[in-house]
Amino acid sequence: MKNSHLPVGLFDSGMGGLTVLKAINACLPAEDVTYLGDTARLPYGTKGQETIVRYTLQAAGRLVDMGVKMLVVACNTATSAALPVLREHFAPLPVLGVVEPGAAAAAHASRNGQIVVIATEATIASGVYQRAIVRIRPDARVLGRACTLFVPLAEEGWMKGPVVTGAVRRYLKDIFSPVVTAPRPDTLLLGCTHFPLLLPALQRVVGKNVHIVDSAATTAHCAREELAARGLLRENRTGICRFLTTDNQARFARTGSLFLGRRLKCSDVELVDL
């Protein structure tokens, strides 16, 4: 198809969506990817619904204007607030969010149906994960917990240490305490793309028997299926990544290196204005 040469466009309020980019690179190594992090207006999760929708349309619009064959909303807050609006506004361009893939992964991973979703304030308040999980698994009992401090910790590159562990305990210890009587949750869904950076601290607090679900890999597989169905897959080449940010290229490169597990230079990151 004539548009198969175009890149996949990803965007997030900051750098958390780089966990999705990393998964797409692994699942779709031949695809070019353009990533936009709206770091100047981070975080989206504490903003009102109308503001989140406006910011999301602006970020997505910049990528569409540059030319992409698919939009991946690599931000749970933006997905929960604006996915239907994006799909209507940019039709027939395929637009994929991270909520449905993550919800499906959690629903299938849980043994006892007791699932905890942690995300930003806006995502939890929307109830989008709770509804999505129950649609897939009607017997599930889903508890949402807003963990507002996790995004700035991840954006600072703080993955371990007493501050991180203390924050995780403050938010989750009451749910996963050994003294909690039946039945304890067996699955924790990371409903924000920033949260995988805190995975060691999260696993330590919730316990080794709790399955932690990160929606990034599932989202990447969904992207592959959608591109294949539309005849838009590229193969037999090595894709390239383009990085855009709305503020502070040096900081994006520094923290982005932690998310990707490889070094980004400041010169690898372009500054854009929305």
Major beta sheet, strand line-up: 4-3-1-2-9-10
The average pLDDT is 93
CATH C-level class of the largest domain is Alpha Beta
Strand content: 15-25%
What class, by secondary structure content?
alpha/beta
- The CATH topology name of the largest domain reads Rossmann fold
Distance between the termini: 30 Å
| Broad shape | globular
Oligomer category:
single chain
Helical fraction: 40-55%
Q: What's the CATH architecture name of the largest domain?
A: 3-Layer(aba) Sandwich
When the domains are counted, the total is 2
Largest sheet: 6 strands, parallel
Using only CA atoms, what is the Rg? Answer: 18 Å
Unreliable stretches, pLDDT < 50, 5 or more residues?
Answer: none
- How many H/I helices? 11
Beta-strand segment tally: 10
Order of helical and strand elements: EHEHEHEHEHHEHHEHEHEHE
Quick synopsis:
The chain has eleven helices and ten strands. It has helices spanning 18-27, 49-66, 76-89, 99-109, 121-126, 128-136, 150-155, 162-176, 199-206, 215-229, 249-260; strands spanning 8-12, 33-37, 70-73, 95-97, 114-119, 141-146, 187-190, 211-214, 241-245, 269-271.
Keywords:
alpha/beta, Rossmann fold, 274 residues
Walk me through the structure.
- The chain has 274 residues and is α/β, with parallel strands linked by helices.
- The chain has two domains: 8-98 and 217-271, Rossmann fold (3-Layer(aba) Sandwich); 100-214, Rossmann fold, CATH 3.40.50.1860.
- It is 45% helix and 16% strand.
- It has eleven helices and ten strands.
- Strands 4-3-1-2-9-10 form a six-stranded parallel beta sheet, sandwiched between helices. Strands 6-5-7-8 form a four-stranded parallel beta sheet, with helices on both faces.
- β9 (241-245), α11 (249-260) and β10 (269-271) form a beta-alpha-beta unit.
- α2 (49-66) packs across α3, α4 (99-109) packs across α10 (215-229) and α8 packs parallel to α9 (199-206).
- The longest helix is centred in the N-terminal third of the chain and has 18 residues, at 49-66.
- The chain is globular.
- The protein starts with 7 loop residues before the first strand and ends with a strand.
- The model has no long low-confidence stretch (mean pLDDT 93).
